[in-house]
Amino acid sequence: MTTNQFDTGLPSIRQVQNWIKEKITVEFRLMTGDLITGRVFWQDHNCISVFNANNEQITVWRQAIAYMKPLSN
Amino acid sequence: MTTNQFDTGLPSIRQVQNWIKEKITVEFRLMTGDLITGRVFWQDHNCISVFNANNEQITVWRQAIAYMKPLSN
Amino acid sequence: MTTNQFDTGLPSIRQVQNWIKEKITVEFRLMTGDLITGRVFWQDHNCISVFNANNEQITVWRQAIAYMKPLSN
Amino acid sequence: MTTNQFDTGLPSIRQVQNWIKEKITVEFRLMTGDLITGRVFWQDHNCISVFNANNEQITVWRQAIAYMKPLSN
Amino acid sequence: MTTNQFDTGLPSIRQVQNWIKEKITVEFRLMTGDLITGRVFWQDHNCISVFNANNEQITVWRQAIAYMKPLSN
Amino acid sequence: MTTNQFDTGLPSIRQVQNWIKEKITVEFRLMTGDLITGRVFWQDHNCISVFNANNEQITVWRQAIAYMKPLSN
């Protein structure tokens, strides 16, 4: 398992930061098989928090993310 | 896998702290596929402990959380 | 994934220590989906060791625990 | 779980760097069972980002990779 | 996820060391659902190596162990 | 989860090094349930790279290995 780094200079962290700024809808594929789709609200060392289409806040744990795919604006 | 930080200044930690204070019912989706729903009682570096609707205490390990979703007061 | 801390001052560690002292029967839900039920015998940094109803000793790895639920005395 | 190292001298990091340079198509098998196939765009400490055949950008988390297999140029 | 410690003073490490010395047959339940049964040959920081009933050597990674159960001599 | 160590003095690392030298065919059982069988080409801190029977190079991440079993020369 990876020991992730929350360093704002890293491309993976800047990419999420950009999705926040640009209000991009992103698909998160989780280890459970769940697909969480929404706009990213904030990220920190442990989690990425999104609002889905029903305007529900879902705080996804980084440890559970398999991949992320930006969909559109 | 993430090396989580238990730093009370982090949004992900403050969010849970707020759920404790506001007595919010929260849904925890676990890596096993289980859904644990309840009010958060305490959190520490390793775990988040909740009381479910049957007033059972369930201590969830952070390592097993895929996402968290606040439901209501 | 969490880097757990084995600090005897943490609520999650003291809770298990209390279950040992009070001879509480505890249910452990594992990442595999297994349910291990028994009385806790000892805990250390890596594992929690329990005796089940057949008096078999089962040493559960912390890394594999999704949640813990105390059942009764 | 492994604490991965992002050290550009490591064979596993240089291999990916070479796939970027040579525009190799690579198959990523994930812990979820997903197969992600594409050309690697960048890698950092946390993630490897690829473009698939539909030119979608998919950012795969290292923590979720089971194996990688280069397919062709 | 746990950052395991390989400290020979820990009960979980001494328990395995004792199984080696006493030639105990042990059942290992893995995250994959596999059951590996055999006598422990050696352990180190990463792995526990066992011989099964067919005298095959199987090197189990600690990261993959859900629980361990001693069966008999 | 385990924080693996890549220390060439460890039995688990030396065992793989020996398989490289002796051209042993090894079976890798992964967390996904996949079985990867082949000869080990190199290992580093993050990965073990093998050639399978079709002479395809497969780079397996240590974090995804449940167990390893040497088959034959």
Automatic annotation (TrEMBL), chains A, B, C, D, E, F:
What positions does the domain Hfq-related occupy? 10-70
Listed NCBIfam families: Hfq_rel_Cyano (NF047718)
According to UniProt, the name of this protein is RNA-binding protein hfq
Q: Which organism is it from?
A: Dolichospermum circinale CS-537/01
